[in-house]
Amino acid sequence: MVNSSETRRSHRVGLQAERVLWILALTSVVPLLACTKYRVAPTDDGGGDAVASHDTSDAGFGGSGGTGGGAGGKGGGDAGVGDAAGQGGTDASVGGAPGIGGMGSGGSAIGGNGAGGGHDGGADIDATTDGGSSSDGGDAGEVGVGSWMPMNSGTTEFLRSPWGTGPNAVWVIVAASTASNFLYWNGTFWSMVTAGSNQGLTGLWGSGTNDIWAVGFGGVILRWNGSTWSPVTSGTTKELDGVWGSGPNDVWAAGAGGIVLHWNGSFWAAVPSSTTEDLYGGVWGTGSTDVWASGDALIHWTGASWTVVNYGLTNGLNGMGGSGPNDIWAVSPSGSTTIQHWNGMVWSSIPISGYYNVSALWASGPSDAWAIGIGQLGSSMLHWNGEVWSSVPTSLASGPSIWGLDAGDIWAVGAGGTILRYSIQN
Hints:
By secondary structure, this protein is mainly β.
């Protein structure tokens, strides 16, 4: 285990250092934040020239028609090299139905499939969907092509802990240097929402639209009731670094010195955790009898008590995620070439392609997980396809937080007000 006293002395400094690292990563790679396409489930390309697995063509925030070129898939017609998405691509009537992403009639800034090209390249950078559907011009050639797209957050502050109840209801903590507020996405634009606390916030989770919790420094706990954020007595002044629950009457928070709190629907109360190590990795679980808290120790709640679990590393853990009780991942903030995996019985080390300080992870299923961290070439996205972890071949200024609604709608936030949204075009 990592020495708790050493970690405690450096934890607050580490949070500031983390911001500096991500800002440095942001300034070095922000020119690469054009449309990035990532194929997660390729099939037949529907005729015509095959599109490359990844397209990092620089088109500003609008993206370009890509390099699909060649035949226009099943729709017929030569699409040339893909018109710029700044003008929405060539009309569908000219190129017919494209195979996908820049083939046929121009393509879209995010690799749209079907006729109609893409959305106007000069459109709001918050847009994440393509401008046409495959039914307009014949069958699309491929499915499962996803894109990470930048969004305009309206702030340059450090962002963390995205969480939401749907594609048009997403919250993000704005971790300013003196206090924190929230950003809220309503499906059209981001707006700032006052937290009403002078303490910094670290974690966010809710059981529904009108029941959301935020925790942070000084033992602060805030609750959203659908209209306002209000403080709730925590009974501690220790730093809280994460919050998660299985329902409105079963919510956990964890943090410094092994502090673990439980909400039973009426009040927060401390629960023995079996450790005094800092639990800066927060809390995550799959149900009321399967909850984990991580940091300089890993502890597990099985419904009766918290117990310390050996996870196979001497480094601390920065966070956890998974798709079920037999498919859980844990990531380390210290440089590593592996990510830890729980199969329901034991923890094991799974290799990753490179050396990364991995900050966060989210998974939709056994064959789809995303992790983000800083590697030798800057910040990167790592993807698990059920067999191997691989680095998506472009640097994305993101992290340290990631959350997804489902496999086709994932959010990553970080330094400099960065917000990236991943979507899959069918």
